[in-house]
Design goal:
Helix content: 55-70%
Subunit structure: Mammalian complex I is composed of 45 different subunits. This is a component of the iron-sulfur (IP) fragment of the enzyme.
Structural class: mainly alpha
Region (Disordered): 56-101
Membrane topology: Peripheral membrane protein
Protein name: NADH dehydrogenase [ubiquinone] iron-sulfur protein 5
Disulfide bonds: 14-44, 24-34
Order of helices and strands: HHHH
Number of helices: 4
Strand content: under 5%
Shape: rod-shaped
Largest sheet: none
C-alpha cells in the first residue's frame, strides 16, 4: 500500500477503498470475505474494468459504423443499377405517364 498521500499532498483517490478493504481484511475470518472490497480497490488503482468497458463500447461503435457504410454502399449500388436499367430507354415509364394525361 502506498502512503495514502496523493500527488498534491492530500489523500490519494483510492485511499478510502484501501481503508475499507483493510478494515474488512482485519475483521474477517477468511480472506475470501473481502473479495468485493479488494476488487473495488484494485479497480480504483488500475481502472481495468473501466478500460475494458470503454474498449467494448468503441468496438461496437466501430462495427455499427462499418455496417452502416456497407448498407449505404449497397443502397447506392441498387439505386445506380435502377437508374441505369433499360426501363427509361424503352419508354415504358413515359408511355404510362402519357396514357394517364
Amino acid at each position: 500500500m502506498a502512503s495514502g498521500f496523493g500527488y498534491s499532498g492530500g489523500r490519494s483517490r483510492c485511499h478510502p477503498f484501501w481503508q475499507e478493504f483493510h478494515k474488512c481484511y482485519a475483521l474477517a475470518d477468511k480472506p475470501e470475505e473481502c473479495v468485493l472490497q479488494r476488487d473495488d480497490y484494485l479497480e480504483c488503482l488500475h481502472h481495468s474494468k473501466e478500460i475494458l468497458r470503454t474498449k467494448t463500447i468503441q468496438d461496437e461503435a466501430h462495427k455499427q459504423k462499418e455496417k452502416r457504410a456497407k448498407e449505404a454502399a449497397a443502397s447506392k449500388k441498387k439505386a445506380d443499377s435502377a437508374a441505369a436499367s433499360n426501363v427509361p430507354r424503352l419508354n415504358v415509364v413515359e408511355d404510362k405517364a402519357k396514357a394517364t394525361a
